[in-house]
Amino acid sequence: MEQSSRRANLFVGLWTGFVLVAIYLPIVCGALAGLAKGRYFNFPIRAWSGEWWGRTAASLEIHALVQNSVMIAAVVTVVAVVIAFFGALAFARFDWKGRRIYQKILLLPIFFPQPVLGLALLLWFNALGVTPSWQTAIVAHLVWIVPIVTLVIAIRVYGFDPVLEEAASDLGADRLFILRTVTLPILWPGIWSGALFAFLLSWGNFPLSLYTAGADSTIPKWLYSKMVAGYTPMVPALGTMSTLAAAVLLLGGGLVVHWRRRRAAAAG
Amino acid sequence: MSSAAAVAPDATVPVAPGAAVAPRLPAGLRCALPVILFLLAGFVAPLVTVAAYAFATPKSFDVFRSFTLDNFATIVDPANTVWTSFAWSLVLATVTVVLLAIVAYPIAYGLDRVFGRWSGLVGTLFVFPLFVSENVRLYGWVLFFLKNGVLDGFLKWIGLSGGPEVLFTPGMTLFGMVYVYLPFMLFPITLGLAMVPRDLIDAARDLGADRLSIWRDIELPLAMPGILIGMLLTFVLAAGAVAEAKILGGQSIIPITQDIEIAFTYAQNWPLGSALAVILMVIVSGLALAVMGRLDLDRILGRR
């Protein structure tokens, strides 16, 4: 019995390791291609060079892309977290009549093919007479990201005991005070995770930006256009740089979430 | 959730005289309102617009002014081969779901039972690719399988004849889908497995049940809500996928999403594209609503 379960665990471990290697393999391939010297990728790499990284970092076109992507992701994060915070309370905290339906309707945008959603938004903006730009891309990202952030925060809200709010209220605290000193501190780890998700998902999103950003390009959109026509080693170089930026953010954000959770655990 | 109703903040906060003229909405609805309004404007309204275009005169922009079924007639016309795109998308999505269930189940099991304090880290390693643009990752596979790419070059370097030519085939499209949608299957299954009480399994084992019957009679049925969400999510996403067929599949097959895109861009036939989108939407949302109707989200997400 013991031995067979150890063998099963070994299999699970090996399988997980194998799949993880497969997941990161293409990302590593991209990194290699961006560091090779030649114009066209050949393996094994004969000469290494940082030239393409340098050219990518110096390119004014790339600067504009980064600016667009950061701007979109930043606004998406702030708006998504504010809306989703209340959305998550409605999802998991309060018992109200329409809650079951609300819970399901909220999930629909996540369960929806993004290219179709992007095209639908494009038609809608067209019907409203709005020219697609980075601002409309923000709206498009939000349609998909707000439900995800709501879920992320809601999972934290489920672990929250409403009795704490009740006690504070019995002791004479007003609503704003309760929100600031009881509700928010307990939910901070969820809110931080939600913000991290919002920023990173917006940063990497392609299908929604493709249709709704109009003439304003983002990093994923530019990479795609160059993959289809006009390949340069700047494609894998920028892809790798964008991946590294996301990794740094995830690491930093993860530490903040971890630290917040520990502090919340110590306080509560 | 019984205690939640009792502590709606209003219940205990004294109301200033004259302030309660208008009947207040319940706290839950008030909190849900921003999300609901936003989704009405950003999700429902665009879908209504698509539906309106689907009934407009073909190759026109007469939205809300004409009503015709011509676009749907074009699609079901036997002379038209658009059904092959539908078939490819649905078949690939189905196979993707089956393969992903097989690939993800052991990993989800590991995250829930085997990795212990490492499961947070392992889980993060599986989340991270979600934040890297899909195109970048798919293109990495092109570099891997390309002639003189990583695999081919490596095999030649060690003295073999070189890698197989798998790029730009329908199988490669399938591979790309399995690759991209893995996290969407993995995390719901992990949530589902976390719902299975451990002592129930221990009890069954003490009573002499073997591994297979524990799995079939206890673990699988109790984890089913999570597995269903994963299957639904990956099916819907794979049915609407387009990048895999373009980048890895080299357009050896045309998925339905690409037909829709072509109608909107090159063909400039928005009504036809909308009609195709409406059919896909009906399939996808019908399935989503049917499956979600059977799920208790409080139990799955709140683990109670």
TrEMBL record, chain A:
This protein's record includes keyword Membrane: yes
Record-given protein name: Spermidine/putrescine transport system permease protein
Family: Belongs to the binding-protein-dependent transport system permease family. CysTW subfamily.
Keyword Transmembrane: yes
Transmembrane segments: 12-36, 70-94, 106-125, 137-157, 177-201, 234-257
Superkingdom in the source lineage: Bacteria
Lineage: Bacteria, Pseudomonadati, Pseudomonadota, Alphaproteobacteria, Hyphomicrobiales
Cellular component, GO, one term: plasma membrane
Predominant cellular place of this UniProt entry's protein: membrane
Annotated organism of origin: Oharaeibacter diazotrophicus
PROSITE patterns: ABC_TM1
Compartments, record wording: Cell membrane
Gene Ontology biological-process entries: transmembrane transport
Keyword list, A-Z: Cell membrane, Membrane, Transmembrane, Transmembrane helix, Transport
Membrane topology classification: Multi-pass membrane protein
Gene3D superfamilies given in the database record: MetI-like
PANTHER family: PUTRESCINE TRANSPORT SYSTEM PERMEASE PROTEIN POTI
The ABC transmembrane type-1 domain, residue ranges: 66-253
UniProtKB/TrEMBL annotation, chain B:
Superkingdom in the source lineage: Bacteria
Protein localization: Cell membrane
UniProt keyword annotation of Cell inner membrane present: no
Chief site of localization: membrane
Keyword terms of this UniProt record: Cell membrane, Membrane, Transmembrane, Transmembrane helix, Transport
Residue ranges occupied by any ABC transmembrane type-1 domain in the UniProt entry: 86-291
GO BP field: transmembrane transport
InterPro entries hit by this protein: MetI-like (IPR000515), MetI-like_sf (IPR035906)
Identification of the protein by name: Spermidine/putrescine transport system permease protein
Lineage, broadest ranks: Bacteria, Pseudomonadati, Pseudomonadota, Alphaproteobacteria, Hyphomicrobiales
